[in-house]
Design a protein that fits this description.
Low-confidence stretches: none
Main location: membrane
Number of strands: 0
Distance between the termini: 34 Å
Helix content: over 70%
Mean pLDDT: 96
Strand content: under 5%
Shape: globular
Order of helices and strands: HHHHH
Largest sheet: none
Protein name: Fluoride-specific ion channel FluC
Structural class: mainly alpha
GO molecular function, one term: metal ion binding
Keywords: Cell inner membrane, Cell membrane, Ion channel, Ion transport, Membrane, Metal-binding, Sodium, Transmembrane, Transmembrane helix, Transport
InterPro entries: FluC
Length: about 130
């Protein structure tokens, strides 16, 4: 039961953080491109890389704390379904080049951010 509560609490906080980041991104950068989704997916991947690297090379956390951070918070902070919806919206509007750019930057950015987080923790603690 503690595990489910940890995941639910982390998920609630991650979802709220995603909403806030998306709102700020839309306010600052406009709504013509899914900057918020791009930001949370790349930032969330970087954070997950830091967490995974930190746990692999230095820190130890109880399973509930790991689930709170990695499954709950990072899982709810990032969003593949919104990414897919954003891609569909751009495509439906006829912005095929922008949709392709969005996919490339999102996927490559998230993967590079993950490796960046892991590399930082490996450099610091391995």
């Amino acid at each position: 039961m503690k595990m489910l509560l940890a995941i639910a609490l982390g998920g609630a906080l991650g979802a709220l953080a995603r909403h806030k980041v998306g709102s700020v991104a839309m306010h600052w950068l406009g709504s013509g491109f899914p900057y918020g989704t791009l930001t949370v997916n790349i930032a969330g991947s970087f954070l997950l890389g830091l967490l995974a690297g930190g746990l692999a090379f230095r820190f130890s956390l109880p399973l509930e704390a790991r689930a709170f951070l990695m499954v709950g918070f990072c899982g709810a902070f990032t969003t593949f379904s919104t990414f897919a919806l954003d891609f569909a919206t751009l495509t439906e509007r006829g912005n095929l080049m922008l949709a392709g750019f969005y996919v490339a930057v999102s996927v490559a950015g998230a993967i590079l951010a993950m490796f960046g987080g892991l590399a930082i923790m490996r450099t610091l603690f391995a």
